[in-house]
Design a protein that fits this description.
By secondary structure, the chain is α/β, with parallel strands linked by helices. The protein is about 55% helix and about 10% strand. The protein has 22 helices and eight strands.
């Protein structure tokens, strides 16, 4: 979603990086780029002006820290102001001290309320809570059935009442929660194509009847500035406690997410990053600011990994890597874990330095299926010992997987290269506690040498300067012969 603004802000930062001093002149160009970046992302005009003015004032008034590039200090100012714009600190849930916590979802029709209700219920169930979903959207007949299907998928009870009005359904769900031993009630209310008096009266009546601890506005990130206007309309009638941004994985420009907190005072509490029920994250302003500036989001990446990777399996894999015993069965298992973490482009965007480089890059997750098909067409012996796969076996694997011989060759070549890298790392003791610290302390150049096969100690064996000189001599000899 933030690809465009990430690229534009990076361009603005580059105009001041390396400058000995920040002045009115060199800041003017940078702030022009920042303003254009925000406006092109469909950020509210007033929000954009206030943001640019704050950054400029802070940049001109900052004290120069000895040994720190002024450009880097400028990046820090932009980052801090983005965090403040997005809400400062993460807004938690106001859990009830006694009885069940009631969460009311509201928003326009098509914003994704019903799916969001299922996602939140799934998330909280995984955290040890006992949610109850309430089908209070009687305006859209399919909504009740949709919630039932979602509830069945995540094994969460759904409260429905045929023929009853939404207010009665929500009121009666509080008593039903006791029967289900539920400690969280999630009310899926009706929406309209636009804000009208009838809708707001109904929602206000539900609020009076249930006294919810949380009233979350579900907002479609693709509707841009309309999201801010709609949120303000809801806020005039309901004491909104937070917002949920849906379709954050879309090609929307991100203006709604950047404007919502500043324009309405409503903090974003969750963001939906896909259609699957596990595609919901808590919203952290500092992490989101890091993604927008192309700094990545390592914390969220680690949290995703921890949610899908078993600790014992990870330890066993670490031991295999250290002994260079990693095989295609292990590779297949790791692919499955990565797929559970979400789309590959989203994962790569969390890695520092990669976010801003993915603009226009088409990352096809179907490649996973192609790799899986090839590996699954191998025998157990071949997966355990890939080195025995000769030309005849490769042709059989290609036919069995429905892929080309090139697909098979490419996979085996890439896997062999990966094993070489992990083998070197294992010999250097880079797996495990102390090894991990050593790896983290290495410079980018050292890591690059490790990955490319060059010796860390200047050896002439693995592609050093001596080999380059030999190549140059051969080229010179060929030129002389041609003459």
């Amino acid at each position: 979603m933030f690809e465009s603004i990430t690229e534009s802000l990076s361009k603005a930062v580059r105009t001041v990086l390396g400058k000995a001093k920040l002045s009115e002149d060199n800041l003017a160009e940078a702030m022009k780029e920042v303003r254009l970046a925000l406006l092109e992302a469909d950020v509210n005009t007033k929000v954009t002006t206030a943001f640019v003015d704050r950054v400029k004032d802070l940049a001109l008034g900052m004290e120069v820290i000895p040994g720190v590039d002024p450009g880097q200090q400028f990046v820090k100012i932009v980052y801090d102001e983005l965090v403040r714009l997005l809400g400062g600190e993460a807004a938690g849930i106001d859990w009830a001290e006694r009885g069940p916590t009631i969460v009311m979802l509201c928003g326009l029709q098509g914003s994704g309320k019903t799916t969001t209700a299922g996602k939140i219920a799934r998330r909280w169930k995984a955290e040890g809570k006992h949610p109850l979903l309430v089908a209070a959207d009687v305006q859209r007949p399919a909504a009740i059935e949709q919630l039932r299907v979602l509830g069945a998928q995540i094994e969460v009870p759904v409260f429905t009442q045929a023929g009853a009005n939404p207010v009665s359904i929500c009121r009666n769900s509080v008593n039903a929660a006791k029967l289900h031993n539920a400690d969280v009630i999630i009310l899926d209310t009706a929406g309209r194509l636009h804000v009208d008096a009838e809708l707001m009266d109904e929602l206000d009546a539900i609020r009076e009847a249930t006294k919810p601890q949380e009233i979350l506005f579900v907002c479609d990130a693709m509707i841009g500035q309309s999201a801010v206007d709609t949120a303000n309309e809801f806020r005039r009638r309901l004491p909104l406690t937070g917002a949920v941004m849906t379709k954050m994985d879309s090609d929307a420009r991100g203006g709604a997410a950047l404007s919502l907190r500043e324009s309405t005072g409503v903090p974003i509490k969750f963001v939906a990053t896909g259609e699957k029920l596990d595609a919901l994250e808590e919203f952290y302003p500092d992490r989101m600011a890091g993604r927008i500036l192309g700094m990545g989001d390592v914390v969220s990446l680690v949290e995703r990994a921890q949610s899908v990777i078993d600790e014992k399996e990870a330890k066993a894999l670490q031991d295999k890597l250290a002994k260079n015993q990693f095989n295609l069965d292990d590779f297949l298992n790791q692919l499955a874990s990565i797929r559970k973490m979400g789309s590959l482009k989203d994962i790569l965007g969390m890695i520092p330095g990669l976010g801003g480089q993915l603009k226009g890059v088409d990352i096809d997750d179907s490649q996973f299926k192609r790799i899986e098909a090839v590996i699954q067409s191998m025998t157990r012996e071949e997966r355990q010992n890939p080195e025995i796969i000769d030309a005849r076996r490769r042709q059989r694997i290609a036919r069995g997987s429905g892929k080309t011989l090139k697909d098979v060759n490419d996979l085996l070549k890439q896997f062999t290269e990966m094993r070489k890298i992990t083998g070197r790392m294992g010999r250097l003791g880079l797996f495990g506690g102390a090894g991990q610290q050593a790896l983290e302390s290495m410079s980018p150049g050292t890591l690059s040498s490790l990955a490319s096969g060059r010796s860390l100690y200047g050896s002439k064996k693995a592609g050093s300067k001596a080999q380059q000189k030999k190549k140059e001599k051969k080229k010179d000899k060929k030129k002389k012969r041609r003459r």
